[in-house]
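Figure S7 source data.
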Amino acid sequence: MSEPTLRVTEIFRSIQGESTRAGFPCAFVRLTGCSLRCVWCDTEYAFHGGAEMTVADAAARALALGTRLVEVTGGEPLEQEGVYPLIGRLLAADRTVLLETGGHVPLDRVDPRVVKIVDVKAPGSGMAGANLPANLERLQPHDELKFVIADRRDFDWSLAMVRDRDLDAALVVTFSPAWQSLKPETLAEWVRDSGRNLRLGIQLHKVLWGDVPGR
Ligand code: SF4
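Tokens for the predicted iron/sulfur cluster complex:
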């Protein structure tokens, strides 16, 4: 059987910028391609191109970066079959594996040891129709939900979903401002006054280095 391959945009070491692990050193494996087109997407450079490599090679490069945390991201990582053996190799090397996913691909094949950071697409993304409600039933207490908020309409829509499903009772639910669409301080006030246990997400890597690839 031929060795599984992946199309990879970049593998690099940085500081984890999102999620509750923000601030820790982290290796990132950014897989190429995504079938969605979120209005505010900040990784359009990962839609096309990339380099083909074996899963073994991608895992080795990520592990060589020497971080305890490894995040598999994209693009949409779950749109490539090779993501599953990649995750397996990273877990076998005793890494804490984070998976950033847009929420439009079923999560049922993801190893339960993986910390899933799952987007819920609000209307301002233009992709709210792609959310898979069944994915919300597959989350574990260590997983996290992320809503990117572009405006007040997004906030109200997202808050209603959190309330209706009581999502913040069992999960970390992060609301992050869409980069250059909504002021972080505005969202901070909305989160503060929401009456729910929401977490304000600020993309630490962009505060540090700006919106550039490889960071
Ligand atoms: S799901 Fe993620 S990678 Fe795909 S378009 Fe939306 S933000 Fe970009």
